[in-house]
Every structure is written in structure tokens, then in C-alpha cells.
Design goal:
There is one protein chain. The chain has an eight-stranded mixed beta sheet with strand order 1-4-3-2-5-7-6-8, with helices on both faces. The protein has seven helices and eight strands. It has 277 residues and is an alpha/beta fold. α2 links the parallel β3 and β4.
């Protein structure tokens, strides 16, 4: 997961909020079928290597630069084959994904694949996501790092693993889903179904709103197992969300608000979980 300093719902860091700056856009296209979107914030350490690794897979590539203040923007200019959305200030992980959804719709892609830029998602899985999209039996293909359960893998920081476990179970119970990993950012979305979503949560709690809306829209969901990688478990969320209990309570509050905003979820849900419990 990319760690942004914009964890509090309702705005990014500081008092500027999330409404002041509209993103600038650079668009480059070759393949209008699959768009790969990579949100970044201060990823000068990784961005060159990640972009080199994704190039052979033939997807149009969008980088959403969420107001980076390091050398990320300069490095992106070295890759003229990518599209770039640039936030003039940090607006949050959820906002970056919402802008990627909008970009994919406006430019009429069939599928949007999202992945992180901190080398915790291996580009080698991109062909598996593409293959899964071609089966035509899913609207959301969500990566899972825990297909055998949270106790089977110990590579994640304990607090993150436990919060993921708690909230995945809660989402399953409240929405009738069968997820094994609610927070994996490596996903494929059928772009035509994104019109059913209205993502307004700008920070890390965005998946709580996303899953509620996906369940309400009866989107078909499958999971694709991917490798669990944590290269830097010391990276922080920023602000109060560095405290695991505060982070858990924040995510619960966002889920509660999303549930209140959505109509009751019909049951049974027409879901399939490929290769997962």
C-alpha cells in the first residue's frame, strides 16, 4: 500500500482541504482496452524502476501524482509514453483512485487496472489480471494477499494484518461478501461499471466506501491471489492514523457512514471468489 500523509477523511494534510486544486493532465494512448493506473506520492525511489517493469505488458499507463514534493515529477517527465494526472497539492489515496476512475471513463477504456508504486505489487501479475478480465465473468478482480487466511502469512506488520482481518470480516458480514483481503490496491475494474460508484472518501478509508457501493450495485467480484510483500514496514500513514486503534475506529466510522448513505444490500449476492475461501 502506498502511504500518503492524507489519512483523515474530508481532506488532505493541512487546512487546505481537497477542493482547491484541479489536476492537470497529460494524455498518451496506444491501447484503448486496458489502462494501468499507478497513484504516487513522493516515490522518487521507486517510480523509474516500476515504470520500466510495467512497459513490456502493453497497457496504456496513467500515473496520478498526488502533489509529490520530491523528485517524482521530474522523473515522470522522462517517460513520455505515460499519461500523467498531477494534483497541485496532496489530496489523498482515495482521491487519486477516484480521479483514475474518472480518467478511465472519459477516455473510454474497457478495463482499469490499479497498482501501487512502492514495489509491493509485482508487475509480473499484470498478465494474470488481463487474462481474468477476458473471461467476462467479473466486474471487479481484486488482488488478495491472504487467500489462505490471515494466519497463514506473517510478513505484514501485525497491526495492519489485524485491522485488515477485522474489517474484511466486518464487510463480509454486513454486505454478504466473501472477501479475503479488503485493502489490496492491486485490482482490475470493468470501466462500464464505475458509473455505479461515487467515491468521495479521499484518504485510506476509501475501500470502506468502495465495497459498500460495489455490493449495492451488485457488481460481480472475484479475487486473484498475489504475493504478500512489505519492503518497508516502518512507513507511516501520518497523523492520528499512525495509531492503530484510531485507524481502526476511523475506518469503522467511514463504513458506517457509507452504509447509511446506501440502500439496503440485496441478498444473496451474486459473487464468486476465485480460488479463495
Amino acid at each position: 500500500m502506498i502511504l500518503y500523509p492524507a489519512p483523515v477523511e474530508g481532506g488532505s494534510r493541512g487546512s487546505r482541504g481537497i477542493q482547491k486544486s484541479e489536476p492537470s493532465e497529460r494524455f498518451f494512448t496506444v491501447n484503448k482496452t486496458h489502462l494501468l493506473a499507478i497513484p504516487v506520492f513522493n516515490e522518487e525511489r521507486y517510480v523509474d524502476g516500476v515504470l520500466r517493469e510495467v512497459l513490456p505488458y502493453g497497457c496504456d499507463t496513467l500515473v496520478v501524482d498526488d502533489g509529490s514534493t520530491d523528485g517524482t515529477a521530474c522523473l515522470l517527465r522522462r517517460h513520455p509514453w505515460i499519461s500523467v494526472l498531477t494534483h497541485l497539492e496532496n489530496r489523498g489515496y482515495g482521491k487519486s483512485l477516484a480521479d483514475a476512475f474518472d480518467f478511465a471513463r472519459r477516455h473510454r477504456y474497457d478495463w482499469l487496472i490499479t497498482m501501487d508504486c512502492d514495489e509491493q505489487h509485482e508487475p509480473a501479475y499484470i498478465p494474470q489480471f488481463i487474462e481474468a478480465t477476458l473471461k467476462g465473468d467479473a466486474d471487479i478482480i481484486s488482488g488478495t494477499r491472504y487467500p489462505r487466511g490471515f494466519d497463514a502469512d506473517s510478513g505484514a506488520p501485525p497491526d495492519r494484518r489485524e485491522i485488515n482481518r477485522t474489517l474484511t470480516a466486518l464487510l463480509n458480514a454486513r454486505l454478504g461478501l466473501r472477501l479475503t483481503d479488503a485493502f489490496c490496491g492491486f485490482k482490475a475494474y470493468r470501466v462500464a461499471t464505475l458509473e455505479h460508484l461515487c467515491i468521495t472518501v479521499p484518504g485510506y478509508a476509501m475501500p470502506m466506501q468502495f465495497w459498500v457501493q460495489a455490493a449495492r450495485a451488485r457488481l460481480r467480484i472475484t479475487e486473484l491471489p498475489i504475493k504478500l510483500i512489505y519492503k518497508d514496514p516502518t512507513r507511516h500513514f501520518g497523523g492520528i492514523l499512525d495509531d492503530p486503534e484510531a485507524r481502526l475506529q476511523h475506518y469503522r466510522a467511514v463504513l458506517d457512514r457509507a452504509m447509511q448513505a446506501a440502500p439496503p444490500v440485496p441478498t444473496p449476492m451474486p459473487l464468486d471468489c476465485c480460488g479463495c475461501r
